[in-house]
Amino acid sequence: MAFYEPREGKLYPSVIVFMRRVPLISALLLATACGGDGDDGGVGPPPTGSLEITTTTPSNPPAAGYTVSVDGGAPTPIGASSTVTVEELEVGAHTVQLAVPAGCTVEGDNPRTATVSAGASTAVQFTVGCAPPAGSPRILFTSFGEVASEVYAVNPDGTGLSRLSPEFSQDAQAQWSPDGTRLLFLALDGLYLMSPDGSGRTRLTDDLVVSKARWSPVGGSIAFITQRFEGDLFFEDLWVTQVDSRSTSMIAPNAVDLSWSPDGREIAFVNQTDESSEVHVIGADGSGEKTLTDPSLFVFDVAWSPDGSRIAFSTAGTIFTISPAGDDLLRLSSGETSDQAPVWSPDGSLLAFTAYPAGQSPDGEIGVMNPDGSGRRILTDHRGIDDAPDWSPDGSQIAFRRSPAGRAGGGEIYVMNADGSGLINVSNRPDAHDHAPDWGP
Is residue 154 located within the same domain as residue 118? Predict the structure, then answer.
């Protein structure tokens, strides 16, 4: 309290001391209100948090990975399927951007906004799709519709689906040349070639109805089977054509399936008449035809091994192999299922086949076994039919057709690992009738 003397208009000394102390007390009160303790000047650092940034690349991940930046700052390397943490970010909204190479696409927003909270880590997830490198193997298949039969190509991970045939065409059974530069396919009026992108369609044969064709493993030649009528009689003949010269000749009658020797010098084929169906071998020039199997074995299909030492074939539900000389017949099937259509792996270490359960079940599954019949494994378990297996060039995967139960003639193209894991629907066309997969070299 101040004491005042009205007559002289002055403050007493005690009042002056009191007024000098007021500023110091106010400063102490202000520091206390702001949280200061008198040791650091009164104000602490602002609160921060962090971002945990994760990338996932399901297939074809680039070896160099990607880079990520926050708020336009310096890029930080991050793997194709990896996680990095950016720390000491101010509380609030931040912009996160992932940089990817050509051929890769980030799903969803990029850049995207993430909110950082004090003392917490905020997750940011990027999923990236990457196409296979240029020249990587693709899978061809034929798609039947109500009015057309068209050739498609797709990457092994299901990306890059493209139609190679003109709309409403009648193309089928497309397959890669051994060097991967051309495609062979069947049309209503004969054999054709085209480029891998569908351009440059070129007719190879005239006035022949072709039911099946196969490239020579060394290229340059194509063996094919034709169908013809003479009156009421039906015939199927084996032909060979030279791709460059277009020289074409019929080398054997009564052929229903074929497979080249690895050196391209001979052709194994199924010679079928009214009385028998046998494995024959003939030179690519039509010389030296010989019969390998006994008439008691009614043969349906044939497949020459990659090393040339064995020829696999199936009869009524049983798979055998035999030497090209016609000796050393070996039964592979155990009798547990009806086995058909053997296909050698690229290195010859396994045979893929279609197994049908005994009895009247319509189901079919993909199986594999060793060349001596051991190590038999059924890879699929599906209500319907899995058939037409085809190996990837490195033997690590198998493409095949899957047809749902009760849907005759329909199906989609699937890919799985050689042990049956990693199943992918690559054609992904539930209303289509896709079949005959052929994996590029």
Answer: no
